[in-house]
């Protein structure tokens, strides 16, 4: 089984939605939810994440041995999410051997040029399909 880590900040709305959909489609898959603040962590735990942690050190530790890291693109940009992502967090995620599924959320003055304008639901749907592909690769 792959180790899936979801990292989110602010209110955790995006992370919550991802956890809900992953648990719906892959109920036995364990999910670690890491919030850049306690509100985000709580939202993801309420959505069904198996484990939760908050802050810089959990991101650094999880980045070492996760197979998949899912979150907004800001998790690899120091000082993003209104300063919630520290330089150490961004470096840990960016340097991780994990496959990183980064969602192109154009906020906090970070705009990903060349991506389609998609709703959050459409972005999350794409993430779920990519996770499915990753989990199928494990079985082959």
Give a written overview of the molecule.
With 140 residues, this protein is of the alpha/beta class. The protein has one domain (4-139): Rossmann fold (3-Layer(aba) Sandwich). Helix content is 46%, strand content 17%. It is built from six helices and five strands, in the order βαβαβαβααβα. The longest helix is centred in the last third of the chain and has 20 residues, at 120-139. The protein is globular.
Neighbour order of strands in the largest sheet: 3-2-1-4-5
Question: Helix proportion of residues, in percent?
Answer: 40-55%
> What's the helix count?
6
- Mean pLDDT level: 90
| Structural class assignment | alpha/beta
Q: Give me the Rg, rounded.
A: 14 Å
In total, the number of domains comes to 1
CATH overall fold name:
Rossmann fold
Largest sheet: 5 strands, parallel
Distance N to C terminus? 12 Å
Q: Could you name the CATH class?
A: Alpha Beta
Give start-end ranges of low-pLDDT stretches.
none
Helices and strands in order, then pairings?
Elements: E1 4-8, H1 13-25, E2 31-35, H2 38-46, E3 51-54, H3 56-65, E4 68-72, H4 80-83, H5 87-95, E5 99-103, H6 120-139
Parallel strand pairs: 1-2, 1-4, 2-3, 4-5
Helix pairs in contact: 1-2, 1-6, 3-5
List keywords for this structure.
Rossmann fold; alpha/beta; 6 helices; 140 residues; five-stranded parallel sheet
Produce a short descriptive summary:
With 140 residues, the protein is an alpha/beta fold. The chain has helices at residues 13-25, 38-46, 56-65, 80-83, 87-95, 120-139, and strands at residues 4-8, 31-35, 51-54, 68-72, 99-103.
